[in-house]
Amino acid sequence: MTKPEIAIVGVYPAWDMEAIDAAYTAHRLWEAGDRDSFIDSIGANVRAIATRGELGASADLMCRFPKLEIVSCYGVGTDAIDLSYARGHGIRVTNTPDVLTNDVADLGIALMLATARQIPQSDRFVRDGSWAKGNMPLVTRVYGKKVGIVGMGRIGQAIARRASGFDCEIAYTSRTPKAEIPYRYFDSAASLADWAEFLIVIVSGGEGTKDIINAEVLSALGPNGFLINISRGTTVDEAALLEALENGRIKGAGLDVFRNEPKIDARFMALPNVVLHPHHGSGTIETRQAMGKLVRDNLAAHFAGKELLTPVA
Ligand code: 8YV
Questions:
Q1: Mutation pick for ligand 1 pocket among 8, 76, 95, 261 (CB with most ligand atoms within 8 Å)
Q2: N or C, which end of the chain is more exposed by having fewer CB within 10 Å?
């Protein structure tokens, strides 16, 4: 039987590539010297796109594949996929929710601790011999603090459970209050920031949440507040954030996501009060194996005419 042809937008770990190659004729878009001509040469027969969250699938890409049936995304966020184009053309979309929830929540807590307790700075302090010359400057406590969570989906709830373990007080904002959530609700990011000592952003990306963390929210968070962003670079007005960090309008930030990844604004590198992380919230071996399996299982279900495991509504 001939294998279905699929286009892969960006590389996956070797274990996924091997399994994909065994089941499909897989066209590697990232390896093409001339991507456009390569897509022209394969476009007519491609029935699926396998992509990653940050690479997505634009309408411009999808329209090159007239027989496209499904886009399977490695990642929970679908903001880089043109869902309305997909819907309009009967193209199914899947993502990888749940399997990455706990890792991303772990990273939110890790960045909160790393930023407030200055873990990277402490590591440098020991390595460069500063310790022999004096004590490490005092840092900020985490336990018992007020943690405001922007976005109370699956990952937001997992962060809240973890922060409860640090005896933190928890509140959140989201489009509407959630009856089943026991935490205090604020109806805006600014009012939540005004209350919080740590503001953790974990909303979906996309136009609806662009710049929801703006200068007003940062000024409400204030000079003793910390911002943690594990959502998307688009949710934070980065010019306002840099200005706030450079001028002590907030105390610090732990950032996994940025506007221009991976070539982030060089001003971040000069800041002593940030912990920078390379968009790697789900980047553990265990979770990436589960994500890859889900990408492949969704494709397999589609081509077997079975129900998709994790379709995007
Ligand atoms: C993944 C993500 O990190 O799950 C998500 O939404 O943040 C993604 O960007 C990425 O897809 C892994 O390549």
A1: 76
A2: N
Q: Cα 67 to the chain's mean position, in Å?
A: 30
pLDDT in tens, 251-298: 999 999 999 999 999 999 999 999 999 999 999 999 999 999 999 999
Distance from Cα 199 to the centre of ligand 1, integer Å: 21
Question: Nearest C-alpha to atom 13 of ligand 1 is from which residue?
Answer: 52
Closest ligand 1 atom number to CA of residue 279: 3
Task: List helix spans (H) across 128-281.
Answer: 130-133, 154-165, 189-195, 215-221, 238-246
CA distance 28 to 24: 12
Instruction: Indicate if 101-276 has the same CATH topology as 5-98+286-303.
Output: yes
Q: Is the overall model pTM greater than 0.90, yes or no?
A: yes
Catalytic sites, residue numbers:
232, 261, 279
Please give the CATH architecture assigned to the domain spanning 5-98+286-303. 3-Layer(aba) Sandwich (3.40)
Q: What is 101-276's CATH number?
A: 3.40.50.720
